[in-house]
Amino acid sequence: MYFVVVLLLFRTLSMVNSETWSLSYIYTALSKPVELPGIHEFTAMGLLNDKQIDYYDSVAKKKIPKQDWMREKLPADYWEKGTQSRKSKEQWFKVNVNILMDRMRHNNTDVHILQWKHGCEIDKQPDDTLKFIKGTDQYSYDGDDFLAFDDATMQWVAPVDQALPTKRKWDGVQILNQYTKGYLEKECVDWLSKFMAYGDKEFRRADSPPKVYAFAKKAKTAGHVRLTCMATGFYPKDVLMYIKKNGVQLTKQDGVQSDGVLPNDDETYQIRMSVQIPEADKETYECFVNHTTLKEPIWVKWDGKCCDCSQVTVVVIVAVVLVVLIVALVTSLLVLWKKGKICAGNTGALPPTEIQGSLNGNGNGAAILSMPVTTDGAISTSSDSGQGSNERLEREAMLTNEVTTDGASSTSSDSGQGSKERLEREAMLTNEAIGE
User: Fold this and answer.
1) Whether residues 197 and 231 fall in one domain
2) Are residues 160 and 24 in the same domain?
3) Which in 65, 73, 394, 415 has the greatest CB count within 10 A?
4) What CA–CA distance (Å, rounded) separates 344 from 354?
5) 45 with 146, same domain?
6) pLDDT tens across 360-380, in order?
7) Do 190 and 280 lie in a common domain?
8) Would you give the DSSP letter of residue 436?
């Protein structure tokens, strides 16, 4: 047990004192154009720490910088080579999205998407050395995983049967797999290091501690709530968060869910973790958060309250009260009418002590009832000089409670300055189709 505690403490300290950086490139190809603004048949973009640094699409057909420091630090030759590289990839994707449609037995009626993401992630240590964490080289089709490179075994992994022909073909060229591993672990990291230096001022910002909240909302499962721990506004990105029940950390096996660390609009970050628990649960739940800006971890205890659990009850009560008031009002009007208090006709004016003051007079002492009547969606006014029939009043009473439902809301680096070997591989990949 002591060993586990020491190991956990070491892991906490090492994560808090390091800083994670990533460089990735994402290519997206559609099977056919769509008439939507900003959506193109082919797009490619580079991301440094999830911030866009360059961009290319099938309309402009030019690789452009998205950060001032990229424009200032990199020569025109970099952008020219990058443009040619992405043009060749655009053609490669056009061929291969059609190959996959045939393999999946899809026609061109719907839009299909082939996407490729590759890049690397490192830890910047306190002494400024860079430690490789992982490389990513993966393909998806229509949002589902299609093929991914295993850096450890230098083999492609096929999660679906339709990807097996491509896996066999690509694994048959081991020199390409060796290059892919070399790119992820070395060349990508070199470019990441260079970009980190170029954009140091832009990416350097004042450290910001997290603000931590614990709250619960009604869950989809009856009798349950979803308890959420949220930390937001922190920088840098690395953070540790746990949900604890009676001091014991909950895990995925206990139903804990999280999308991981996500960016905020102000370049800080946020993270949420949640778990479903019985609404009547009286155990102690706490959110644990640790961050490099904190002298000691933050503990926030859930107060046991549910934000929206009582809203349904309140709505029902208000609705019932309104219905009772409407029924009482309609009943009172009918009683007054039967007693001759309303619609006195031409026999004379209503006594001044009656409800005449609350109704419109017709100049002859008789009351006029003006009620909006809905006919085929139009609003009209039914005016009566005190001669209304029983049928008309019943119809008007019905209309006051009528609800109209009609119409209701109702694989090469794109870093530009690659080696001769990389450029040769790029030329090979241009012809290395997914199909056999």
Assistant:
1) no
2) yes
3) 415
4) 11
5) yes
6) 343 433 333 333 333 343 333
7) no
8) -
In-domain check, residue 312? no
Chain CA centroid to CA 218, Å: 20
39-44 long-range contacts, Cβ below 8 Å, gap at least 24?
41/94, 42/90, 42/93, 42/94, 44/86, 44/89, 44/90, 44/414
Query: SS3 of 288, please?
Result: strand
**pLDDT digits over 41-94, tens only?**
999 999 998 889 999 999 999 999 999 999 999 999 999 999 999 999 999 999
Residue span of the structural domain in which 338 resides: 334-387
Contacts of 303 (CB under 8 A, 6+ apart): 214
* Strand, helix or coil for residue 120: strand
Count structural domains, the chain. 3
Encoded tokens for 91: 């053609």
Residue recorded with tokens 């059609």: 98
Note whether 160 and 35 are same-domain residues.
yes
Question: Is the previous residue joined to 236 through a cis bond, with omega within 30 degrees of 0?
Answer: yes
Among candidates 91, 136, 81, which has minimal Cα distance to 114?
Answer: 91
Burial class (CB in 10 A: 0-12, 13-18, 19+), 171: middle
This prediction's pTM: 0.55
Question: Within 13 Å and on the Cβ side, how many CA atoms surround 129?
Answer: 3
3-state SS, residue 115: strand
In a domain? residue 235: yes
The residue assigned the tokens 């090492």 is 14
347 lies in some domain = yes
